[in-house]
Amino acid sequence: MKFWENDTIAAISTPIGESGIGIVRISGPKALEIAQEVFRDKKLNKTKIRNFLSHSVHYGFVINPESGEKIDEVILVLMKKPQTYTREDTVEFNCHGGILSLRKVLEAVINCGARMAEPGEFTKRAFLNGRIDLSQAEAVIDLIQAKTERSLSSSLAQLGGNLKRKITDLRSRLIEISAEIEAPMDFPDQDIKEISPKKVEENISYLLKGVNSLIETLDYGKILKEGINALIVGKANVGKSSLFNTLLRENRAIVTHLPGTTRDTIEELVNIKGIAFKIIDTAGLKDPENVIEKISIKKMMKHLKEARLILAMFDASVPLSSEDKEVIREINKGKNENKKVIVIENKIDLGEKINREKLFSLLDIKDSTKMSLKEKIGIEELEEKLARAATEGLVIPENGVVINNVRQANQLNRAKQALEQVSLGLKKKITYDFLTVDLKDALDSLGEITGDSISEEIINDIFSRFCIGK
Question: Residue 294 above 70 pLDDT?
Fold first, then answer.
């Protein structure tokens, strides 16, 4: 018997706070028994919950079994194993969403024999009971934390088993080739023909191609999951805060005609074309007049070094100033292949006096985005450029299989290294019995992605990142 099979767990599964509905979830072998102790029908009669149909809904009350006192008016949802999230008997009490009522319902359930669930334990049980694999379990938390339509779609695809199927295919091929290599060694008296090195190499090439195709999606997956920082820089009063507010569709930053209105960096998350951008508004670059401005500019310089995407703003209605040239120098200092710069010429409604040829030459660019934030010109073009810049050069898979966490990527890289060792061994004509060690390492590495071969410590670490109640 598995260690959790005698355990019944319970938790509040909705965010703590005031809301229309809050849910207390119970899962385990005594879920129905415990629910029967605390639930009464609309006439306050005790009911035989075990006789209810699975996946049925019932109106009534949760009471304190000792005093008979009503705790809350509820809807009971009954789900009998195995057709449940955890593959265990599960009961959910849909209560009023107040903090006190939810806690009192949970307390009554625990007093009747349940224990408080650990973070992620419901999903952990779904994994341990074979309903989902580890990659699907990780997709659950990604789904909860999804910030955009693209990240939501990617998480749903992984939850649906896209990555599981890909890894299973690769592992099946590995197991097959390993069996063909080991069979003649394990059963020498059976006269089993030894597999040719050419066939082994063909299979290893197929496996390496599959593993590499997944590794290549990591950068795109991380952007879907975490988003990308976009830093707005420029001299004072160029329109940085106006751009910040425009992208957010709200007046988050204070905007005035006075230079230096923004003293500190302001950050907000915004969904642009299905990608999460953390837009960072910074203090304008100017000669600091006091200690506060010195600190603000120092913070801006730090962000400038770290940012992967820079929105460099210039005032198109005036010639390039010394402050503009200082902005350009600072941008050029940190330029590298991973840093992208989108140049914005703002205030085109006031006429264009900027030396565009010189601007392009100094920044080594070929185009810019002409805007008038006041007249709402160029906003759609800028958003298109932002979306392109975020995904430019990244592998966007057509089949929707995306790697988006470091744990999965590390295991794929381990599998890749092991497979490359096999390929190298074949070229050096190393005997098959030595190659099987690397094949086993590749198999185990892929198995750690799905949970087919993984330690209890890693499982516990993964599920500890979940919220209680999920």
Answer: no
